[in-house]
Design goal:
alpha+beta, 5 helices, about 25% strand, about 220 residues, globular
C-alpha cells in the first residue's frame, strides 16, 4: 500500500501543475469601436454630446456560481467514485473573477480527478479572445455543438513509468464567462487508463451541468 501512495503522489503532480498553469492564464478586452450614431450626429453638425458606447464593456455575468454546486451529486458519484459530493473549493485571490472546485478519489486501484473552473472576463470580446487562445494551445480536439456560445473538447494520454493517465478537457464560453473542465483517470493495478470515449463523455457531461449552473445565476 505504501508503494501505491507513492504512485498516487507522482500522478497528482502533473495535474496540480496543469491546474496552476490554467489559473495563471488571463486576457484583456478589445477596445470598443466608434459609435456609428455619434458619427452621424457629428456629420449633421450637432453640438450635443452623445453618450459613449459601452457595448464592449457590457458584462452578462458579474459573478460565477458557487463552483462546487455546479455539478450534481449523481454526476460526481458517477465520474469520481468514492469522492465527497461537496467537493473542495480552491481559493482564488479574486473570487468574482475565478472560482474552482475539485473532486478526487482513489477507489480500489482506480483514481479519478475532476476540476471545474469558472472565469469571468471583462467583456464578451475578452472571453472570446481567451477561448480562442485556450483552444489553440490545446489543439487536436473538436467543437461541441449546443453548449454555451462555443465549446471545445480534447483528450490526451500520458504515460510515466509505464503508468497511463488519460485526461479530457472541455473549454466552453458563455457570453463573458469561460467554463473549463478537466477530468482524468488512471488504474494503478493494470497501469492502464480509461478509454478516450469514457473520459471525453465524462468531461462533456460535467461541462454541460457547469454551464447550466452559470446560466441560472443572476445576470448583471
Amino acid at each position: 500500500m505504501r508503494s501505491l501512495h507513492l504512485a498516487l503522489a507522482v500522478r497528482l503532480l502533473p495535474v496540480v501543475v496543469l491546474a496552476t498553469a490554467g489559473w495563471a492564464m488571463a486576457s484583456g478586452p478589445f477596445a470598443s469601436t466608434p459609435d456609428a450614431e455619434n458619427k452621424s450626429a457629428a456629420d449633421n453638425g450637432s453640438n450635443s454630446p452623445s453618450a459613449p458606447s459601452t457595448s464592449a464593456a457590457t458584462k452578462t455575468y458579474a459573478d460565477s456560481p458557487a463552483p462546487c454546486e455546479g455539478i450534481s451529486k449523481k454526476t460526481v458519484t458517477s465520474l469520481v467514485p468514492g469522492a465527497k459530493a461537496a467537493g473542495k473549493e480552491i481559493r482564488s485571490t479574486d473570487e468574482s473573477l475565478r472560482r474552482t472546485c475539485s473532486w478526487n478519489a482513489l477507489k480500489g486501484f482506480e483514481y479519478h480527478w475532476l476540476d471545474v473552473t469558472y472565469e469571468i472576463k471583462k467583456s464578451d470580446e475578452a472571453a472570446a479572445t481567451a477561448y480562442k487562445q485556450r483552444t489553440t494551445d490545446n489543439s487536436g480536439g473538436g467543437t461541441i455543438p449546443g453548449l454555451g456560445d462555443s465549446a471545445y473538447s480534447v483528450v490526451n494520454l500520458t504515460t510515466e513509468d509505464k503508468q497511463q493517465t488519460r485526461e479530457g478537457m472541455v473549454i466552453a464560453r458563455a457570453s463573458n464567462a469561460l467554463v473549463v473542465v478537466t477530468y482524468n483517470g488512471s488504474d494503478f493495478e493494470t497501469k492502464k487508463a480509461p478509454g478516450t470515449d469514457e473520459i471525453n463523455k465524462g468531461a462533456i457531461k460535467a461541462a454541460k451541468e457547469a454551464v447550466t449552473a452559470l446560466e441560472s445565476v443572476q445576470k448583471s
